[in-house]
Automatic annotation (TrEMBL), chain A:
Protein name: Cytoplasmic tRNA 2-thiolation protein 2
Cited InterPro entries: CTU2, Rossmann-like_a/b/a_fold
Lineage: Eukaryota, Metazoa, Chordata, Cephalochordata, Leptocardii
Functional pathway: tRNA modification; 5-methoxycarbonylmethyl-2-thiouridine-tRNA biosynthesis
One GO term (biological process): tRNA wobble position uridine thiolation
Entry's Gene Ontology cellular component terms: cytosol
Annotated segments matching region Disordered: 371-391
Role noted for this protein: Plays a central role in 2-thiolation of mcm(5)S(2)U at tRNA wobble positions of tRNA(Lys), tRNA(Glu) and tRNA(Gln). May act by forming a heterodimer with NCS6/CTU1 that ligates sulfur from thiocarboxylated URM1 onto the uridine of tRNAs at wobble position.
Domain of life: Eukaryota
Gene3D superfamilies assigned: HUPs
GO molecular function: nucleotidyltransferase activity; sulfurtransferase activity; tRNA binding
Organism, scientific name: Branchiostoma lanceolatum (Common lancelet)
Amino acid sequence: MECGGQVSEADMLPQRLPTAKKKNCVRCGKAAVLVVQTSAAFCRECFLNYFTHKFRSGLGKTRVVQPGERVLLAFSGGPSSAALLDMVKRGMEEGTQKKRLRIEPGVVFIDEGCIIQGFDVDQRQQALQIVSKIAEDSGFPVYRVMLEDFMSEHSTEADLPVTVSNCAETSQDTTEDVERQVKTLSTDDSSADRLKRLFEQAKSLTAKEDLLQMLRSKLLVKVARMHGYTKVMVGDSGTRLSVRIMADIAQGRGSALPLNTGFADDRHGDVVIVRPMRDFIAKEISMYNTICQLESVFLPTLSTRAAEKASIGHLTEAFISGLQVNFPSTVSTVFRTGAKLCVSQDPENMPEGHERCAMCKAPLDTGQQGPLQSSVYKTSGASEDDNKCVATGPEPSPSLCHGCSLTVADFGDFSALSDQLLHD
Amino acid sequence: MPVSCGLCEKRAMLKRPKTGGALCKECFFKVFEEEVHQTITSASLFKRGETVAIAASGGKDSTVLAHLMKLLNERHNYGLTLFLLSVDEGITGYRDDSLETVKRNQQQYELPLKVVSYKELYGWTMDEIVRQIGLKNNCTFCGVFRRQALDRGAMMLRVDKIVTGHNADDVAETVIMNVLRGDIARLQRCTAIVTGTEGAIPRCKPFKYTYEKEIVMYAYFKKLDYFSTECIYSPNAYRGHARTYLKDLESIRSTSIIDIIHSGECMSVSVKKDVKMPTQGTCDRCGYISSNELCKACVLLEGLNKGLPKLGIGKPHKARMALGLANTTNTSTTSGSQRKEGCRSCSCRGRQNAVVNDSPECKKDNGLSSLSKGDGDPTSTDSSMKKEVGSKSSTVGVGGDSVAACSCNGGVQKEPCADTVGAKGQSVLCGKDDENTPCACKKGKRQVGTRTTGDSRAMLDLDF
């Protein structure tokens, strides 16, 4: 020993023999290729079966999606949505008459490029091309939308600059389309610029991410409405939703949790957002993608390469992912806790007249604020100077839920967006 | 240019953690005291003429609590009779010092003091307990015993209410913990400002919306006399993760703590109707509140007295519950030492003097395994422990009951877990980081469960 002490045989720690035995698939007994959720080893075929079965039973169990329905698939280019696309495609091809997934899908991709700063335009263009290719390979009609389209005044289908492409187009066309998309940025200055300026006003990354989340879902609903789709399927995985649960709790959005992270989000009325990938954790999805050799592309977002404590969402993701390493049931436990919640039916909590938050359309939770608000000592007469004492939190507007008022407080001038947001 | 106070024209002395505003010392005191007063009045915590016991440990929370209760009682004429109630766990080098602080508090605030000790109530001090069971899971014992001790002390004093110094950080941490642990039953209760049901003395948390940082600031600027050391037996525990997360959140957005409490309050009314919850009953032996036949304290005590320290530690088992609640902890342990081959996650593993029942299967993880520092058990990872938690929560109703952890054990028992929100005594008396690994109850108490112990595996965990 380096310290000069004597090491006897007895002192040596017992060597642990490596477990040489190979695991067998728990279903069929053949050699296993991967392990799911720390316990079950599967071979390739059984895993595919397990995965597909989980997806279809998740959809079928809730009976949210009816046969023949027009469903819009939100494709972000990432592994979860790539898996979603693939499963829907296969679900429509395989199976018996009764079991086949009978829906009329379309694919929508939102280009959020205008608010992401600091990333190489060429790289982004390349990535966009791959996204288009994957989307079109599915054979469904593809709608490409820019995030700033939310800002524009378009109200009819004709005006909304959505490029529609389907499988008939060649890849040549798609490249041009994408280039045209990127170029339209410069011609359609007003919307993109306004959006960019709005986002730059935000004092915190947390508020930016929150707003982006909201814009995204509203835009999805808008596109769906415009083209006659009644459902939107998003590829949020269980991991992503667990992170969302914790982050929402941290931002005071506990009352909207069942809507934000549940299977079906029906707050927008006619269009329902569905999350069929919620039963899968990110690891399973990437295993599936590897086995099926699905292509996916990473597009940078607001918090990419940001410091860990840059925003609440980013921190929460690091937190949950970190815990998941040592406690592999973290994600499923958090997820299950969220699943046990439902939208509060308690009429006492809802103030008179206002039922929904003007921004996020979730049920208002200001009824709960009684003791909370009284506890925050108000100092009136303080000067306007931000550096001076502001003893209170954000002034609760009567028509915004707690979480939204925090977000709004972080933006200086919200008027640019408020019309659109409050309209919908 | 010196910043001036937001409320008066004087020069600002500090920045308020809750809102970031700059205040002078006097205005800070005023704001702090006023907010606690608002909390008390808007939640109608007290009625005139009530007797109230202040759970005092000598730590910062309870010292400030005692100070404030006396101050507000006089200033706003609540009409309350106040007592100081302290619990002596018998931890040398820690509790005896903090008890001195409490005694000084008694003189400073001129409040009558009652000290209840574990030795009197249970016949065991924490030092003795730790000697028996080791450095792991001792927080379970301390917490369970303290809760009962507080209640019994309060009954001896014949008070109407207990106030504890749980602050906003504690409540937020508990919300996060309960979500992470999947404990929906506790999640419902933990944000309530008054806890305790019929039969038990209600406990209030006037500091529910008060930031810990502000309490420290108040104590510091008021030069209050408090004891600020962590309990010497507190190991690193799961709650530490929640705590770090909470502190990081606070650094990103200072209102996060209040936001979490707000979320918790909203969630407590939005639980689905068909979720299983534990039901409350009384302990057969001591009459204390329990959701099983025997309350947790009785189970733990029995384990201690019979030299089976792991009794009561660990996780419940589905099969056990299905078999029914049989209080056969000790009687059935001698019925043979078969351990299932290949069962590596239970206390029956590796036992020479296995006192184990024959069991059809033993899937339960030995709760300790998550703490064991790699004693060679491949399945005894936190993962399996956590997994069990998740998978059991819906059936067991983790919120309040416990079932025999391992089917190798004798009986099925259900006891209340260490505590719900009420036992602030925990963090105040024992330091914040005194948890073991995952437990559904507040303050990181060991996941409830009965488990016959006295196995060599338990010995393995005694790595001092």
